[in-house]
Amino acid sequence: MDQSLVEHFVEHFDHHDPRLGAEPEPIYAAMRADHPVAHSDVHGGFWVISDYENARYVLQHPELFTTRETVTIPPGLGNARPLLPLELDPPEHVKYRNLLAPVFAPRRIEALGEKIRANCDRLIDAFIDRGGCDLVSEFASPLPSMIFVEMMGLPYEHYTQFHTWKDVILHGHHDDVDGSKRKAAGQEVHTYINELIGRRKSDLSDDIISVLITAEVEGEKLTDEEIIDVTYLLFLAGLDTVTSAISLSFLHLATDAARREAIVADPSLIPAAVEELLRYESLVMAGRTVVEDTEVGGVEMRKGDRVLVNTISANRDSTFFENADEIDFSRRERRHLAFSVGPHRCVGSHLARLELRVAMERFHQRIPDYRVPAEVTPKRYLTSVAGIETLPLEWTR
């Protein structure tokens, strides 16, 4: 990346600028080295936390840095109401998070292993004999969606519409300055979920929406609005982050024959590979608002200031992770921030890890030698959640 562009982003950091998505690490490295707590003058102004120590501190102190109305910068995920439980602080946050904890408990998630394997094989069956595929659209996107929509109680045949809404809401900032497109998409999602809740009340099942319909918080059942608030958050998270994690992991394995051959030869390395690739290719820029005047990394912040925690950069911090810019499946230090830390740590992390692990196991068992075609340069993007648009792969049939 041109040095002048690096200097531009250090002062005018904008994670929605398409120029940043292609090669962000030189910018992150410059910020970690000289401006670990920097101020950007775009989107009304906000602080950017790029190093591991300060990022972890902000995430672990909700009494100083609230998620209320600031999970993204600029604000706006098409929701007129709060995303529950994300946009609440403890102790109120705990009441709603506890509703989801049993649904995403490790024992219940592990029981999904065979279903995920069967879905992997079904998807691979469709392209293995072609000698190629687009990893994103034919594997990384449909795989977690198959599991998620069933857990939620959503009809899989509407999968394409779900992803259209999700992409507008999460990745449409750069061509939606006034937020009207995101607002319209968000309203369509709200309407869809509201109608589904109405139908589900007379036909309860064991899906998440049914769980929320029957759940109680402090002796009171959730209102329809609260059920929508929780479901809307899960809708966005469940359809996006695992797809990006699978895609970016396979991008590295497709371009690194030695590491790919290592996990093919010894599949027991896969859990460690999952953790290391989550660290190396983290996804989320987490927004917060300063609750009271405070100091972070020697920088004074005022009540009401907005803060962007760049966990993608923090997980490449060489002051915490030795040889942070190298992928090392034997790495001992694994306290990465890919799933955040503190009270807002990702409730679906067990499911994400399982899906990543099974995806690597099945794909590499059936297609052990694949690569990115020589003429292809995969196009990455960066907004509040990083990812890759397409990932063409080829192999010998």
What does this structure look like?
It is a single chain. It is built from 18 helices and 14 strands. It has 397 residues and is α+β, with helices and mostly antiparallel strands. The strands form five sheets. It has a five-stranded mixed sheet with strand order 1-2-10-7-3, sandwiched between helices. A three-stranded antiparallel sheet has the order 4-14-11. It has a two-stranded antiparallel ribbon with strand order 5-6. β12 (380-381) and β13 form a beta hairpin. 44% of the residues are buried. The model has no long low-confidence stretch (mean pLDDT 93).
Strand content: 5-15%
Apparent shape: globular
Number of strands: 14
CATH class: Mainly Alpha
- The domain count comes to 1
User: In angstroms, what separates the terminal alpha carbons?
Assistant: 37 Å
The largest beta-sheet arranges its strands as 1-2-10-7-3
Radius of gyration: 21 Å
Q: Summarize the biggest pleated sheet.
A: 5 strands, mixed
CATH topology: Cytochrome p450
Family: Belongs to the cytochrome P450 family.
InterPro entries: Cyt_P450, Cyt_P450_B, Cyt_P450_CS, Cyt_P450_sf
Protein name: Cytochrome P450
Keywords: Heme, Iron, Metal-binding, Monooxygenase, Oxidoreductase
List the helices and strands and how they pair.
Layout: H1 3-11, H2 18-22, H3 25-34, E1 37-40, E2 46-49, H4 52-59, E3 65-66, H5 92-100, H6 106-110, H7 113-125, E4 132-134, H8 135-140, H9 142-152, H10 159-171, H11 180-200, H12 208-214, E5 216-217, E6 220-221, H13 224-238, H14 241-254, H15 257-265, H16 270-280, E7 285-290, E8 294-296, E9 299-301, E10 306-310, H17 311-314, H18 349-366, E11 370-371, E12 380-381, E13 387-388, E14 392-395
Helix pairs in contact: 1-3, 7-9, 7-18, 10-11, 11-13, 14-18, 16-18
